[in-house]
From TrEMBL:
InterPro entries per record: SKP1/BTB/POZ_sf, T1-type_BTB
Domain spans labelled Potassium channel tetramerisation-type BTB: 16-85
Identification of the protein by name: Potassium channel tetramerisation-type BTB domain-containing protein
Domain of life: Eukaryota
Provenance organism: Dreissena polymorpha
GO BP: protein homooligomerization
Pfam (any one): BTB_2
Signal peptide coordinates: none
């Protein structure tokens, strides 16, 4: 388990009202502390940076090619950020639509392979496949 210790020398205003993090600071939600008195939240630190940036800017900003939206959604739900969960759901639906519209590049290869077959026959429970150049045997 890796531990991230987030610290800053300046005050950062976070929009945490109503979230799990907000409830920690108001004392409504219990949260363990480490030996230095820092709050200890045993969650994915690499994903938390996106949660933290969202709380700082009140908008989702992830790097190009980011592919961990499912995990980010789980973390957003854990931290009690329904607006972020909804934003991620919209993104995930968009990805699914794009994936459905994308043509399958292997489809042409599959049909070409089938068209190249010269002969397929079964004899005594064995399947024989041959093309123009060689004979193959499948048991």
């Amino acid at each position: 388990m890796s531990r991230y210790h987030l610290s800053t020398e300046k005050v950062v205003k976070l929009n945490v009202h109503g979230s799990y993090i907000g409830r920690i600071f108001t004392g409504e939600a219990p949260c363990p502390r480490d030996e230095r008195g820092s709050y200890f939240i045993d969650r994915d630190g690499s994903i938390f940076r996106h949660i933290l940036n969202y709380l700082r800017s009140d908008g989702l900003s992830v790097p190009y090619g980011f592919r961990e939206f499912d995990l980010l959604k789980v973390e957003a739900d854990y931290y009690g950020l329904p607006a972020l969960v909804q934003e991620i759901e919209v993104i995930l639906v968009s990805f699914k639509r794009k994936r459905r519209r994308r043509p399958n590049p292997n489809r042409k290869k599959t049909s070409q392979s089938v068209n190249e077959l010269h002969r397929v026959h079964e004899r005594d429970g064995d399947l024989y496949i041959s093309d123009e150049d060689s004979d193959w045997f499948y048991d």
